[in-house]
Design brief:
Elements lengths: L9 H21 L5 H15 L2 H22 L6 H12 L13 H21 L5 H22 L7 H22 L12 H12 L6 H17 L7 H17 L2 H17 L6 H20 L10 H10 L4 H9 L23 H25 L16 H14 L7 H10 L9 H12 L7 H17 L1
Amino acid sequence: MMERMVYNTVWDKINAYLVFLIPILIIGVLLNIIKFPIIAILIFLSFIFLCNNHEKSVVCALVFCKMIGTFGPALGIHVPGTVVAFFLILVFMRKDLMKLFNKHTTKPIIFILSIFFIFMVYYLLTGETRNSGAKFNVMIISLCVDTIAFLILVTFKDIRMDRLTVPLLLFALMQLGYVESFSGHGPSGLLDFSFFRNACVDMIRKGIPVLSYHNMGIAAFIGAAFMMSQRKKINNYFDIVFLFSALWLIVLSGARQTIFGFIFLIFVWLVFRTGKFKLSTVFLATAVIMGIYFCLQMLDVPFLQSTSGRAAHMGSDLNRNYDYPLMVISYHFLDGIGFGNYHNPYTQEIYPHNIILEILCEMGFVGLLFVIMVVIFYLRSHHFLLRNELPSGGICLLLWIPYLVRSMISGDLSENISLFISLFLLFYYRGIVLSSRQLERLMNLRRTPKMVYQRPMKKEAEGSNVEKRENN
């Protein structure tokens, strides 16, 4: 039996209504009734009225930074998304920003900078190339923005994941609306799951500024991970509608790794949601994900079908060819070909679709060994906990899965430094977690003058009374 949602404030109730509205918005976008500027307005309104200052800062770092960088050039507006996001974070976190950098976060930040230092040394030693400079700049941006976002997540208790996930789903929906408006042709129906990917490819051929179809699926994927991290069970219609909307957007993106990543997320959530490993739970999780997979096949989802010739052809186009990266490793197995120098002249690929292979290609076994040493040294720390939870109660493992899936299947090394940032910050036990109000009270106590300690004077007075009694 479904439990009723408990709303603490009117804004939480409005946030829930907005989630129930998302499937209607998806249908409206697919039918070309709702345009993407309307979705942008909804993101702005949910950001202003439904999130507190800490949640607004996380949205700026994870959504607005990428949103401005994605839609700005496409719309002819060249505004640095990172600068705007940092300015907004400074505005919302002006009172709490220094509290993020304390003795509890020093150690994971040192490990993050160690990884970044290894990449920087290889960049300086291998020289400037067409790809290395841009890759290093993107890495610096990701290092700064994502670190701030995860520091906020691991510090404050007043963050609600269901309020954070709404802007992420709307961001994914906004990308769908953009392609629907500018591609020149729409889907054949509500269940045309190949439309978005094919439209992106067609826009590239026509020279129209286009978005990456991966970004739409990843945004919905991260949103689903955030929401599920605070759920022990699916117990109301809000959770069902949210997961349905996230899965619909992920399948519409056409990103096969994101679809399988979502199924893997469901499996991990079913196994780890109670904190106890049971064999019966593993069998139940396996049955659930197999059911989801077969349902997607029955819906004729492209890239998952293996029987029809059309779907098989699409699947063969998506298969990763690892011959070229393995050939590069065989010729430059020790020191690699240089940071940012990977480029396949035959397929025009700028990364080998795997973070380990990319490190081996560009930095060799020496570079990979340095990275592994830093990670192992961190994992051996007694502060590392795989089952660590966020102050808000979120399961850290679920938040880490989208970055792991993205880095191990597709994506560039510079963008996937988020994998190391999330690893070092999410699974580090900080020892003490305070809410914003508790931090304010603690700061006020430190500002007040200390009371004079009177106990020794009392003992002296008692001693003098004893002497008087003895004299008497």
